[in-house]
Amino acid sequence: MMDTKQLKISTFNDALSQISDGMVVGIGSGSTIELLVPKLAEKLNHEQIDITGVCTSNKTAYIAKELGIRVVDVNDVEKIDVAIDGADEVDSNLNLIKGGGGALFREKVIDAMAEKFIVLVDESKCVSYLGETFNLPVEVDKFNWLLVSKKIAAYDNLQVIRRMVDDVPFITDNGNYILDVTLNSSIDPYAMHEFLIHLVGVLETGYFIDVTDQVIIGTQTGVKILDK
């Protein structure tokens, strides 16, 4: 039996094989990507190739720079050749919930810019509906966060909690709060995203709909690759 970490690592070769010299690469955030970045640095050294990295979080950017990967600001690139990230949930249409680490806005910017967006997950992240195992993160302005949370709760009698870390509100890299919303199987991701994104005070939602090109899944029986 492979553990979760080993399952994640099993997906790396298929992802790294798609990175070549001169590419601009979107580097995501979270536990899977923090394991991937050292492998990416090894590949660059071993194959003597050069890439430009654009990172979705300050933490990933720090790790990448420490390992000698050139990292630039998203405003310094015209396009991204390939973006690689993890996900908190993946459904059968390759739609995702992301944002467990709170970097969902920057992840969405970079994933939307990418010519190809690759998602790496272990099999526990595959769900029959979005929200089955994970709450939906919604990034909101601090100014009216409570009003927004009440509006979201009223959508379908949902539970909405402001994310806390060690008894203090979690703050994103953009200086905002995260509301974690408990979903149910009757909620349509497209309709829910549209509702949320038009609430004044919502910056972004953790729904990543119609953006994924490929999902690489680490399973106990080997790696599965799903293409859009």
Automatic annotation (TrEMBL):
Active site feature? 107
EC number(s) of the enzyme?
A: 5.3.1.6
Q: Extract the coiled-coil ranges from the record.
A: none
Q: Which InterPro entries match?
A: NagB/RpiA_transferase-like, Ribose5P_isomerase_typA_subgr, Ribose5P_isomerase_type_A
Q: Which of UniProt's keywords are assigned here?
A: Isomerase
Q: What class of enzyme is it?
A: isomerase
Q: Which GO terms describe its molecular function?
A: isomerase activity
List, alphabetically, the Pfam families matched. Answer: Rib_5-P_isom_A
Transit peptide found in the keyword field: no
Keyword Isomerase in annotation? yes
Q: Which reaction does it catalyse?
A: aldehydo-D-ribose 5-phosphate = D-ribulose 5-phosphate
* Signal peptide positions (record): none
Its annotated pathway?
Carbohydrate degradation; pentose phosphate pathway; D-ribose 5-phosphate from D-ribulose 5-phosphate (non-oxidative stage): step 1/1
- Function (record text): Catalyzes the reversible conversion of ribose-5-phosphate to ribulose 5-phosphate.
Family membership noted in the UniProt record = Belongs to the ribose 5-phosphate isomerase family.
Q: How does it assemble?
A: Homodimer.
Q: What name has this protein been given in UniProt?
A: Ribose-5-phosphate isomerase A
| Source organism of this protein record | Staphylococcus cohnii
